[in-house]
Amino acid sequence: MIHLDRPTREEFDRWFALSAERQAKDRAWVNGTDPETERAQLEAMIPMLLPNGMDTPNHAFRIARDETGEELGFVWVGVAPGIPADTCLLFDIYVHEAHRGRGLGRAILERMLDSLKADGIRNVVLYVRADNAPARALYKKLGFAEDEAPTETRDFQMRKSLSEDADNRTHTFERQHVVVDGLPTSGTILDIGGGGGGIIGLIAGERVIAIDRLKEELEEAPAGPLKIVMDARDLQFLDSTLQTATSFFTLMYMGNEDHQRVFEEVFRVLAPGGRFLIWDTVLPPRTNEDEDVAIFPVTVELADGETISNNYGVRWPSEGRDAAYYQQLAEAAGFEVLSRRAVDRHVFIELQKT
User: Fold this and answer.
1) CA-to-CA distance for 338 and 118, rounded, in angstroms?
2) Within 10 Å of residue 216's Cβ, how many Cβ atoms?
3) Class of domain 171-353
4) This prediction's pTM
5) So what's the pLDDT on residue 91?
6) Section 89-99 average pLDDT
């Protein structure tokens, strides 16, 4: 019989050091770098991911023990940026070498999945090295499916639904075709939430300062922009120093309570006459309480005719958000609305600091 226990502080420190070491080696293999570089990046990211250490909300750290209390391994699951609130990421699972070959990895994961399901978690996502055939096979036996990936990929994302009605809780809107126009042809652009797909950085390259709260998101963004870990609610720029700011499908990931502060901060750092360009979703009020996750497939059309497709998924706020909502926030911060264009389920708003 396997028990999953919350670790003591000493156990957590020992366990977490081992986990960080293993993850640095895996990331180095995937990224073609060295473990020292990846370890330094992890150390910089951990305070943002786990501000309260083992007591950080929405993260579970568990030591696996047998009936005698002997430690068998450990597992870590928790929330991650860019995925819906009812989805957990399996950060790590480990079986001590002396106990391998007994099917304990599967038993530990099954117990953890049962616990997550009981807590209302609907989906679990994990990443696995492409060369780790035994782990990939185990995950597939447990119902994880690999997302499509290029043949040369060095790691796979796998996901599993913990609920038979998981699909019923997700509402996928019609695909949006978004044209990115209106960007200045010269000068610096501050891109709010420029990590992940990094569309603005992809278009304007080195002219972009891409900021994001999470270093990991910036690492995934295309090369070219200057990338800075920064919170849009507290921009580290002097007053009236920038000419252009952008937000491309970023406000949808923020809570209503943060929006006004972001608009005020962007207004502060823009010079008089500076523009704030916003592309984002139009969320109707949620009428079905069982559908609380909204998925927005988006195809972005670039100036050269190239297209890029992404899916943006968020927890669906019950009150909804439309173009008028964002305009009200902008005007309250002091912006003048130069133009507003709503197409299907997305909006483009051009603001100016007067």
Assistant:
1) 50
2) 18
3) alpha beta
4) 0.58
5) 94
6) 92
